[in-house]
Amino acid sequence: MLPAPDSTRAPRILAVDDLVDNLALIEAVLEDEGYSITLALDGATALAQVEHAPPDLILLDIMMPDMDGYEVTRRIRQNKDLPFIPILLLTAYDKADVVLGLDAGADDFVRKPVDADELTARVRSLLRLKFSFDEREQLAMQREDFIAHLTHDLRTPLVAADMMYKLFQKEAFCPLSADMQGAVTALARSNQNLLEMVNTLLEVNCYEAGSKTLTLITCDMWKISQSVIQEIQPLAKAKEISLSLSINPDLPDLSQLKVLGDCQEVRRMVTNVVANSIKFTDTGSVKLRLGFEPSAPNDATPDGWVIVAVQDTGFGISAEEQSTIFQRFRKGSHKQAGSGLGLHLVQRIVTVHHGTISVSSQPGQGSLFTIRLPAYIEPAPSATE
Predict the structure, then answer these.
(1) Stated pTM of the model
(2) Do both 168 and 275 map to the same domain?
(3) Which of 41, 165, 173, 360 has the most CB within a 10 Å radius?
């Protein structure tokens, strides 16, 4: 977790320049303003210091031997383990310097020869940006931590209540009248819905916190889809809609429907999309279709793509809602819209498996959700095996 900005310490600034006189001038100006200054004479030394003790701001000369300021900036921005550090470039301030610096990832410039007032003003501005960014990050992480603890604490009594409702339904404590049986069933259903929402929120939080652990093995999409359809068929029957599974007729071999992933998460992905379509379909059908798409010349996956398409005849989705449908806590306008977590979790699972998901829909004409996952063709055993 990022530490909260400490107002009791002096902001730390790393100044990088191959000329000692320039560093001495910068150090004198900024130390008078109460900043803590660290100096480096070349880009390699600066990068080592940044990784060891990230400063609050970097003041970086562009023209240095061996590694110029542009390259130092690029390497800092490419290091995902570093916090956000504003970079202020020292430059002659011509147009070429500005364009190259911004493209590399710099945040501002200060002209040479350095004017003390201009330098301190730009440093103050970027430090305000830095601490504002850190505060927002800190608040976001505290919010995520609160949600994680809250949902975990909520799950315990919900699981206990679910067990108690099941015991009541079995009349383990006393006989129940028909009216009481109906009331307990309704309570159990509401409790189960809430438990599912809490479980989904916990899963979403794990993905967003980067703490989700995946077990990658070869997943058979045909078998997973068959299992999902069998499990979820009662939901469709309860609404008197048709639920089916099919394969594109031009698919030559079921072995093409394999992906390398966490089979439990892949199954959750398919289940959530199909269940979502059933939820928003009152008449007609929900069709799950599997297919295969060969790799294009520039595709990152050499074995092609497994296509998972879910077509329904439901209410449809407006263009405006389609643009936000996979966002967290996105609540649709339809009266049956839920917490907005199910499809967001699906997108998280698809993304972590290096795939894509899209939706095509028109109000009143149903929806088509299409997932593309990298196919995994297992190599054939060698003749010596």
Answers:
(1) 0.56
(2) no
(3) 165
